[in-house]
Amino acid sequence: MSIVNIRRITQLFFFVLFLWFCIVTTIGDRLWQLRGWPVNWLLELDPLVALGTVITTKRLYAGLLWSLLTVVLTIFLGRVFCGWICPLGSIQQFVGWLARRKRRHAEKVALNKYRRLQVTKYYLLIGLLSAAAASLVNELLVLPGRNTGLWLGVVAVCLVGLTLVAARKLLGNTKRAFGWFIALVLAWAFVGLVWRPANVLVGSLQTGLLDPIPLVYRSVNLVLLPLVGGVPPSQRFYTGAWIIGAVFLSAVFLTVLVPRFYCRFICPLGALFGLLVRWTPLRIGKQTSQCTNCGLCETDCEGGCEPAGKIRLSECVLCMNCLKRCSQQQLVYGTDRSAAGEVDSAEVNRRGFLVAAVSGVASVPAMRLSGLTARNWPAALVRPPGALEETEFLDRCIKCGQCMRVCPTNVIQPALLQAGVEGLWTPILNFRIGTSGCQLTCVACSNVCPTGALRPLSIEEKLGIGPFESAGPIRLGTAFIDRGRCLPWAMDAPCLVCQENCPVSPKAIYSRPEFRVIRDGERRVRSATPTTVVVDGPDLRKGWLASGEFYLRALAGPDQVRKPIVDNSTDSITVSDQSAWQTQLPPGTPVAIEVYLELPWVDPTKCIGCGVCEHECPVSGLRAIRVTGENATRNKRHSLTVRR
Length: 644
Fold this sequence. Notes:
This protein is an alpha+beta fold. It has helices spanning 3-23, 41-44, 47-57, 67-77, 80-85, 87-100, 105-111, 120-141, 143-146, 148-167, 174-194, 212-228, 241-253, 261-265, 268-276, 321-325, 350-367, 390-396, 402-406, 444-448, 459-463, 487-491, 497-501, 612-616; strands spanning 283-286, 311-312, 331-334, 342-343, 412-414, 427-429, 478-481, 509-528, 532-535, 550-554, 563-568, 572-575, 590-602, 625-628. The strands form 5 sheets. A 6-stranded antiparallel barrel has the order 8-9-12-11-10-13. The protein has a two-stranded antiparallel ribbon with strand order 1-3.
């Protein structure tokens, strides 16, 4: 079996495995449901996920240790992840093969030539990592004033390193190098002692926007599986899914124009691998320089690495097509360097590096100028259970959509601009969508998160029972009643749906009784019997007052007790025999038609923000009861000040 066929089988295996992981990310204990399957394994193999979270949080989530395996394989074998494992790369390769399988040899060679714009992915990687590392830059800048001893130690280590480099004569101009070093140390000291940029430079993890593994997870979970029915069979909805789908389809079908377009020009993970393969011992290259330059090796080259000439190791995705195409067996995969020469590193220039780095560092403070993570935080932004404080959450979330996929009620949705540009596609709760609110005994989303942006919760912690009783339940927010839209408050219509569906015990929604005169309810008697009263005024809707919540009360006379109405016509009202008037009301007696209402109220000390009340509210547009982020456990600054 040829190496190309082995690669194809491997790609198919990992692609099917990826699809299976997406399908089984649902609650249940059946074979096709979440029952111990390592559904995050491909995400955990992604070193860009691990690197980004390490930079922003300064710690490595345990599951992401798998990424070290990918790094080791890349260093020793080359970009094997890109050519053999990555699902998005496999999809692009298959679509490209379909689009170009009947094209002529010369056309294929022209398409597979290296393009200078392929360096773009390295600048994107630099920008994304710089955005994540901005907080580290901040800590380094204030180090001289905050910890002088540590700063002097760092300077000493750098000085020793520079001295050793100079001693080995690796510097072209030693005096100039030491001069620049002293100038940088003095500038560093000035910044650290004089300027305090603690609130200016902040980091945020945005690699998930372009990282191919979170991208393909997000696209399959939120677009493809809901479109084809997927598992579970009930229809699922996701806000802004068309944008996610458009990005995915663009990444896939641009490969019709240029083979593996996304891999070549955009993919920051591919750029990271390209940096790692510079010293790889195994590589593709020519055995001798006796090549006829037939160009067959570049017919199906997926990376545009130009194996016919000086091969670009950073662009080679190890598709092995060149080995199969070479009729003279000039190309081999081994430890020898290519006889035709090699281009070891990416063509990243100093100016482009600085522009990308500065843009990345400045991007997060610019995005936060709106104050959405500070005093101007959006009240409607409610995160899933287990979510960290907002800035810490944004430091970890890779926008993979796993929590949205596993949610049994479909209330976890991808954010558009609710949390600002920085929070695009991060999970938020939309209680209008799905089958219910956040279920009391469900902690699936917090346990499936691959980076700990949603910290793992137990049912006991979420409910605040057992060892967590003193801390109380996890609160997602607080429900507020809009009295201008609530049926009992605004329209004299009896309704207690929110209270009836409140799952908390004792209920967070309670009611207070009130009798209220309906519109045009104050009338005068024209004639009466002990049980029936004919009144003046506009016509009544026949039978409307017989629902059991309406009462008739005389406003004058000795008997002013409310009488339950059992029937009505357009101008007459009948009360029950048990509550008949002992003496019939004389003509002209003022009476009032009243409705008995149970007005809902929210106890903020009991409400956990589960959103069941909002989901079940019969006001179908803007709900009359809505959950906002106040009093959420994850942020003490948003707590309500309630005094009893």
